[in-house]
User: Fold Probable nicotinate-nucleotide adenylyltransferase from Nakamurella endophytica.
Amino acid sequence: MIRPPDGRRRRIGVMGGTFDPIHHGHLVAASEVSHLFGLDEVVFVPTGQPWQKESVTPAEHRYLMTVIATAANPRFSVSRVDIERGGPTYTLDTLRDLRAQEPEAEWFFITGADALSAIMSWKDVDQLFELAHFVGVTRPGYQLTDRALPNGSATLLEVPALAISSTDCRRRVAGGVPVWYLVPDGVVQYIAKYGLYREGAPAPTNGMVGPAGGTAQDEQQEEAG
Ligand SMILES: Nc1ncnc2c1ncn2[C@@H]1O[C@H](COP(=O)(O)OP(=O)(O)OP(=O)(O)O)[C@@H](O)[C@H]1O
Ligand SMILES: O=C(O)c1ccc[n+]([C@@H]2O[C@H](COP(=O)([O-])O)[C@@H](O)[C@H]2O)c1
Assistant:
């Protein structure tokens, strides 16, 4: 854990996402907010069951790709709170669980322009702003606005524009088009190793491991005997 040298409260960013797969748009957004807000840590939190998405790759694959993508940055970490909790993923629970781990810290929730504009549809949205300060970042193709949000609850930030989406990465892999340099190298290799996003890939589920959804962890356990 990185502690501030002057004894002030730790400042922690939360980057929630489905990360199916994680790409450089996510990483740049987290890095920029971390730099500009002087964050001590950014916790990436892969969703368990993202209730507003139809079908997603089993959570263990998304979790492991997130670990691979963030491993080199000492300020980045990955939390399993949304995966372990089970049931639909609500940011209210994410923030409550994380805050319980470190109640003294100052918390910031990072979202792209698309997610920020949908925030009023999130569960118990009014309570969210008491748990974290929201940081909305620009994303190509979306309008960044805090019009619907309570005054002072969010800061809007311009970050380097990366027109990358997980949807596009999945389509590219399915069509045999490379995703090199859109996602970290280790993630390209992970996708190839487990045949993700191709026909016959681990069954998409609502987040958790599905009937045909063997995961990297299953495989490691099998190998270990
Ligand atoms: N290129 C990007 N630039 C800035 N923010 C981004 C970018 N891509 C995603 N985000 C933000 O990262 C968070 C997690 O996004 P998510 O994991 O849903 O990725 P996605 O690319 O939007 O996925 P999908 O295409 O499957 O909907 C959201 O707050 C989203 O707005
Ligand atoms: O709390 C909610 O109801 C809610 C609804 C949709 C999305 N979110 C959160 O928004 C973040 C980005 O989600 P997504 O689906 O765009 O990957 C992630 O942390 C989700 O848990 C949260």
Notes: Residues 129 and 153 are 6 Å apart (CA to CA).
